[in-house]
Amino acid sequence: MLIVNSITVSLPRSRLTGCSCKSPLAHFYIHHAGSSIRELHPFTTITPLAAQNAATPAADDSFEVQFLFRKAGKASYSGKNARYNALRSLVGLSLKREKGVQNTEWTNKLADLVHQDNPFAKPPVESPSKKDDMELESHVMAPFHDSSPKINISLRLEGPYFSPAYPSSYSTVVCLVAGTGISGAIAVVGAFTEVQRLRAIAKGGDTCCASGAATVPWQKCVVIWTVRSEDWIELPFLDTLSGLEVQTHLTGQRRPRIDMYNKLMRLREGNPEGSMWVYISGPKAFIDAGKTACKAINNVNIYAPSWDT
Fold it and tell me: What pLDDT tens digit does each residue of the chain (309 aa) get?
């Protein structure tokens, strides 16, 4: 069975003091002593930090940041369970291929906390606050039911580390992602949601609260997600925003692979004069194929981060 969980952390806004980065993409290194004394793992947050920080009331000194991870296995989702888990049941952990077995064991140990008979782990251990190495109270929420209990655990987070990605500078943004890459795509969608919110406020006449929103060129956001059929889950929360389009391509069971070039070319032809930015995330072979497809099309800017070394 595929068991997927989320980690929610209350991030002090002071962690972003002096940070002028507007990129929606950021990751933290997470250490969980109960899973491994030595290991640190990079998690991409689905929360667009800059946009969330800007949207948080000034009186609040923190806001929630979410990470997603899964326990290895298989399952299918449908109905109410699928809709509830649409946001909580996506994969947010980027793994290095050469250390896949070790990393899977680390993630499984963390996921097992949700299923222990004792609903609470040991309380967090206090430690001195540091800018890039900080002990925070976190929660791992058991999936599937809105009334699921939260389990307190102790995690050490290092970060955030922002990626140099600025989609709001382009009229069309495409997230071409496979499997785990959906986490970064969700963060980009979150940033697009904030742009649309501010644009609506500006149209309503409140130019003070939405300064500059009208001049942002970002008009369309397209998520193209290729995922194995056994790992697919409905994403209803991605279908209700104006200017947002979600395309899911299922793989496995002898299905054909996605034709990246044709997908991107159709989007390019639909807006030949506008600027276009493509975020590519997934396994190395997928990223390489995506880059090749983008380079064959004129006037396409690419951002394709990779954990592989």
Answer: 333 457 888 899 998 987 778 899 999 998 888 777 788 888 899 899 999 998 899 899 999 998 876 555 444 334 444 433 333 333 333 323 233 444 556 666 666 654 454 333 333 333 333 333 344 433 332 232 333 456 677 888 899 999 999 999 999 999 999 987 888 999 999 999 999 888 888 887 665 555 566 688 999 999 999 988 777 766 655 656 889 999 999 998 889 999 999 999 999 999 888 999 999 999 999 999 999 999 999 999 999 987 654
Q: CA-to-CA distance for 304 and 64, rounded, in angstroms? A: 26
Measured at the CA of 193, the angle between CA 13 and CA 9, to 5 degrees, comes to 35
Which amino acid appears at position 3 of this protein?
I
What are the E-state strand segments in the chain? 3-12, 26-31, 41-44, 62-71, 134-141, 150-162, 172-178, 220-228, 244-251, 276-281, 300-303
Exposed, middle or buried by CB within 10 Å (0-12, 13-18, 19+), for 92? buried
CB neighbour list of residue 129: distance below 8 Å, 6 or more residues apart: 135
**Residue 309 to residues 119, 232, 284, 305, Cα–Cα distance (Å):** 39, 28, 10, 11
Q: Using alpha carbons, select from 154, 26, 180, 213 the residue that is nearest to residue 96.
A: 180
Tokens of 156: 């050490």
Task: Write out the two tokens for 212.
Answer: 């500059």
Taking CA atoms, 245 is separated from 12, 45, 86, 241, 290, in Å, by 33, 21, 16, 8, 19
| Structure tokens belonging to residue 89 | 């049941």
Report how far residue 239's alpha carbon sits from residue 181's, in angstroms, rounded to the nearest whole number: 18
Q: If you search the block for the tokens 């995690």, which residue do you land on?
A: 155
